[in-house]
């Protein structure tokens, strides 16, 4: 039986990078291709150990570069595509929406064309609960797969657009697809601009931790390794054309998350600094993952076990996040791959 080939786009990012490691280790009989443009959030140092594995391959490319993507798909004949690659930082989307449309919408369309023309067996599009908009603070309300899309930021609008394109390629061309929509992820290798790693790194350096508004915005937190297991299940067992929500059953306010980290590290809460709220800041996200659980998935991390593991990981791996903050990680691309 021929070795299956899986293309993971955005595999130098946070969730995609963890998924690459997950798949390389779990499926030694799969050839795992990590495609990434290596923008500011792309980091290959996390994959140093994988570079010696014979089933791991890195490809530097822009998903919106039609010629490069078409050539890659024609050459490699991928069985599966798991599409993470996206601009994902909400604040950056507010200041520069255009790059989000180019990557998240146009890039997805190029990948869909390439997948359709090359006969990909399954295209899994990894999206976000932010496409649903916001919930009020009623603890009995949740996003389901039937919740209308009502994105409130340029980032979430670009992701909703790409979701609809994926659905359209399934309905129009018969492309086998699944869409997953996840809650906020956390865990190892999370880029330090995001709330949890930003808080950990700043607290360890006795620096102020910015919290938007009053800190009462609520998010459902999902450990990245639980998310990887969910995507693996959807890739292999998901019903063609279906959407699956992935949530952790771990709702916390942003202020609770920050205080948990500060207290775990034994630092004073006066490190918290409330700052002007983000434009269009959604109040609450919460996911009902029943459909995915009926497929056979359950999260293995509670927030308490997951945040403790994550904090310990950042304590044990200062080498990683310190070189991310300093920018030194970008020199690794040049030394190892002779690319810029």
From TrEMBL:
Occurrences of domain NAD(P)-binding (ranges): 7-310
Protein name: dTDP-glucose 4,6-dehydratase
EC id: 4.2.1.46
Coiled-coil spans in chain: none
Keywords annotated in UniProt: Lyase, NAD
CDD domains for this protein: dTDP_GD_SDR_e (cd05246)
Protein family: Belongs to the NAD(P)-dependent epimerase/dehydratase family. dTDP-glucose dehydratase subfamily.
InterPro entries with a match to the protein in the record: dTDP_Gluc_deHydtase, NAD(P)-bd_dom, NAD(P)-bd_dom_sf
Named cofactor requirement(s): NAD(+)
Species name: Neobacillus citreus
Gene3D superfamilies attached to this UniProt entry: NAD(P)-binding Rossmann-like Domain, UDP-galactose 4-epimerase, domain 1
Gene Ontology MF terms in the entry: dTDP-glucose 4,6-dehydratase activity
């Amino acid at each position: 039986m021929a070795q299956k080939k899986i293309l993971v786009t955005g595999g130098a990012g946070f969730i995609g990078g963890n998924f690459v490691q997950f798949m390389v280790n779990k499926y030694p009989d799969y050839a795992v291709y990590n495609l990434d443009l290596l923008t500011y959030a792309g980091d290959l140092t996390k994959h140093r150990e994988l570079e010696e594995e014979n089933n791991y391959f890195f490809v530097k490319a822009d998903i919106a570069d039609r010629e490069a993507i078409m050539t890659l798909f024609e050459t490699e004949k991928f069985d599966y595509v798991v599409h993470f690659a996206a601009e994902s930082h909400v604040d950056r989307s507010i200041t520069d929406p255009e790059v989000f449309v180019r990557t998240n919408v146009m890039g997805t369309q190029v990948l869909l064309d390439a997948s359709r023309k090359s006969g990909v067996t399954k295209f899994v599009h990894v999206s976000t609960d932010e496409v649903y908009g916001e919930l009020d603070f009623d603890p009995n309300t949740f996003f389901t797969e039937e919740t209308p899309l009502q994105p409130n930021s340029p980032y979430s609008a670009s992701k909703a657009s790409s979701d609809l394109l994926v659905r359209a390629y399934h309905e129009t061309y018969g492309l086998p697809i699944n869409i997953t929509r996840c809650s906020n992820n956390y865990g190892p290798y999370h880029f330090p601009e995001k709330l949890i790693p930003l808080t950990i790194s700043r607290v360890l350096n006795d620096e102020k931790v910015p919290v938007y508004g009053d800190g009462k915005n609520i998010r459902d937190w999902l450990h990245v390794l639980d998310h990887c297991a969910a995507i693996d299940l959807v890739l292999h067992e998901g019903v063609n054309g279906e959407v699956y929500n992935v949530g952790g059953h771990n709702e916390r306010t942003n202020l609770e998350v920050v205080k948990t980290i500060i207290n775990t590290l034994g630092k004073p809460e006066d490190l918290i600094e409330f700052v002007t709220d983000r434009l269009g800041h959604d109040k609450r996200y919460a996911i009902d993952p029943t459909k995915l659980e009926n497929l056979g998935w359950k999260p293995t991390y509670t927030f308490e076990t997951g945040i403790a593991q994550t904090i310990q990981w950042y304590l044990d791996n200062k080498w990683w996040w310190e070189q991310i903050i300093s920018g030194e990680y970008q020199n690794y691309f040049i030394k190892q791959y002779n690319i810029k």
